[in-house]
């Protein structure tokens, strides 16, 4: 009889869907399951839904579970494993002890990351930037998130906010959702693509519909994506100048319109190349819906390794 293989689980608790993956020790996904996130029912229900999905996966794909990584939206304390600040759409989530709850239920170590940090961990572990030592990750979703990978590790900064390029000024003067002005998010998030298109046309359309209109030759839609791509390029140039990081991974729903975004990013980068002349790599995310969960699993993998080998 062969012993059950050792597995690591990754969980992505998103606003609408919770994605759970089971991975080998090498972070190959061997099974996955997405379930609705009961965001209105509170933290216990959300983690409960994730645990239910994980138990189902372990039933149908048996393995010896070594640990669990969780990626969650909002501001998290990656050390205590608690949610610090959550958006209004999550009921009773701020303050919730995520890792303690998972460890209590499963009896294995659990780790918590912010979802954008987990996204970048995933893309560096097994995705578009696999094996790269220095990477900036950006997620162009409802909002714009950022995360920074330096010298082969996630760089969190003293308050855990390193890499948050979405809310720095210098990108025009439009009012941002955070209350600031001229942030990257005002041009490159899904919500702002909808808003910028509505300002030009009076029509309300999701970022995806605006992308479809652009692909069909709609000049206003093209202009909105052109601005988004130019803003992303500006963020890239700031990062290159500040950190000499030259690899960029762009994910989130807006990045699915890569055929629209990439040309405008590249136009701006060619027009204003970095002073140092470094060649830049700007890559679309590769793991799609698995990125956060695989990244969370990779955090667990690294932490477990550290424990084992001390
Ligand atoms: Zn902002």
Automatic annotation (TrEMBL):
PANTHER family on file: N-ACETYLMANNOSAMINE KINASE, ROK (REPRESSOR, ORF, KINASE) FAMILY
Q: Which InterPro entries match?
A: ATPase_NBD (IPR043129), ROK (IPR000600), ROK_cs (IPR049874)
- Family the entry assigns: Belongs to the ROK (NagC/XylR) family.
What protein does this entry describe?
Answer: ROK family protein
Q: Which residues form a coiled coil?
A: none
């Amino acid at each position: 009889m062969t012993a059950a293989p050792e597995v690591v689980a990754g969980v992505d608790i998103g606003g609408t869907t919770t994605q759970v993956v089971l991975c080998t020790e090498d972070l190959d996904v061997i099974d996955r399951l997405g379930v609705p996130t009961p965001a209105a029912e509170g933290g216990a229900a959300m983690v409960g839904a994730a645990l239910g999905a994980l138990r189902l996966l372990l039933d149908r794909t048996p393995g010896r579970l070594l640990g669990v990584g969780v990626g969650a939206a909002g501001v998290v304390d990656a050390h205590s494993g608690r949610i610090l600040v959550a958006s209004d759409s999550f009921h009773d989530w701020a303050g919730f002890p995520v890792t303690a709850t998972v460890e209590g239920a499963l009896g294995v170590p659990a780790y918590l990351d912010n979802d954008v940090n987990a996204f970048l961990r995933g893309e560096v572990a097994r995705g578009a930037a696999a094996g790269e030592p220095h990477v900036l990750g950006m997620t162009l979703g409802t909002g714009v998130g950022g995360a920074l990978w330096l010298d082969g590790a996630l760089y969190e900064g003293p308050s855990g906010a390193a890499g948050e390029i979405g809310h720095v000024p210098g990108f025009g003067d439009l009012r941002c959702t955070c209350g600031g002005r001229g942030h990257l998010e005002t041009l490159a998030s899904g919500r702002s693509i909808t808003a910028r298109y509505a300002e030009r046309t009076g029509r309300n359309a999701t970022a995806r519909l605006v992308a479809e209109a652009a692909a069909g030759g709609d000049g206003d839609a093209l202009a909105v994506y052109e601005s988004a791509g130019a803003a992303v390029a500006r963020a890239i140039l700031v990062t290159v100048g500040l950190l000499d990081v030259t690899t960029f991974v762009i994910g989130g729903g807006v990045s699915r319109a890569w055929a629209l975004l990439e040309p405008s990013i590249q136009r701006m980068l060619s027009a204003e190349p970095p002073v140092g002349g470094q060649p830049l790599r700007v890559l679309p995310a590769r793991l799609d819906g698995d990125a956060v969960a695989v990244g969370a699993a990779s955090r667990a993998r690294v932490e477990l390794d550290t424990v084992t080998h001390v």
